[in-house]
């Protein structure tokens, strides 16, 4: 544990809280991609299967339970409780084009060819692109609500902070995970255009608009 990982985890938790509060308070999931939320749920379920076999720390276990529970809770709100407010028409990204390559890549490039390790690797690859349906939705609708923009910024900041976590761990512990680093860089790059628009638009009180 170090300050960068802790800050990244807190940013991730903040993103989840912002998303759930947005849906619950407005009683609507308009502007939120259900496809991205499905992918995130798959990420957490495949990554944290070791919850039942491996104990690292109370903090680690707590975070795993929170991520799994919140992702499933978000799907419940979007597809059951507030289903009528979900924008099916604009949330049309073909997620199989992300899932299939990630499965193949995980089978070909991993640290150890075991079930849990391949699933962990798959989750790393998938997380790096899971936000694409959300960015695609914002691009199709032309703009994002401020609260949705805050959610995306917090989510992107989490991964960016993890890059500093890896740099710190390499410098302090001579430890690095090439798969996680490359996937994290890809994920951060996907957010770069959004980060620029967030800083130049949203923080100045303007609506965020992504180019179509």
TrEMBL record:
Transmembrane segments: 62-80, 92-113, 119-139, 151-172, 178-199
Protein's name in the database: ER lumen protein-retaining receptor
First-listed, main subcellular location of the protein, grouped into a coarse class: endoplasmic reticulum
Keyword set includes Protease: no
rRNA processing listed as a keyword: no
PROSITE patterns: ER_LUMEN_RECEPTOR_1 (PS00951), ER_LUMEN_RECEPTOR_2 (PS00952)
GO CC annotations, alphabetized: endoplasmic reticulum membrane
Gene Ontology terms for molecular function: ER retention sequence binding
Superkingdom of the organism of origin: Eukaryota
InterPro entries associated with the record: ER_ret_rcpt
Membrane topology designation: Multi-pass membrane protein
Alphabetized UniProt keyword annotations: Endoplasmic reticulum, ER-Golgi transport, Membrane, Protein transport, Receptor, Transmembrane, Transmembrane helix, Transport
Similarity comment: Belongs to the ERD2 family.
Gene Ontology biological-process annotations: protein retention in ER lumen; protein transport; vesicle-mediated transport
Compartments, record wording: Endoplasmic reticulum membrane
Pfam families given in the database record: ER_lumen_recept
């Amino acid at each position: 544990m170090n300050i960068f990982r802790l800050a990244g985890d807190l940013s991730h938790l903040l993103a989840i809280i912002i998303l759930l509060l947005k849906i619950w308070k407005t009683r609507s999931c308009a502007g939120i991609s259900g496809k991205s939320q499905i992918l995130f749920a798959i990420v957490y379920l495949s990554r944290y299967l070791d919850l039942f076999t491996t104990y690292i720390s109370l903090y680690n276990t707590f975070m795993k339970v929170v991520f799994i529970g919140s992702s499933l809770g978000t799907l419940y709100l979007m597809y059951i409780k507030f289903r009528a407010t979900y924008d099916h028409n604009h949330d049309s990204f073909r997620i199989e084009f992300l899932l299939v390559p990630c499965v193949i890549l995980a089978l070909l490039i991993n640290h150890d060819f075991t079930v849990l390790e391949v699933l962990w690797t798959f989750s790393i690859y998938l997380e790096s692109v899971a936000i694409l349906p959300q960015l695609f939705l914002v691009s199709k609708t032309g703009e994002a609500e401020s609260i949705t923009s805050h959610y995306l910024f917090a989510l992107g900041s989490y991964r960016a902070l993890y890059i500093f976590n890896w740099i710190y761990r390499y410098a302090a512990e001579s430890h690095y995970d090439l798969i996680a680093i490359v996937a994290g860089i890809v994920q951060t790059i996907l957010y770069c255009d959004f980060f620029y628009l967030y800083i130049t638009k949203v923080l100045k009180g303007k609506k965020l608009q992504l180019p179509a």
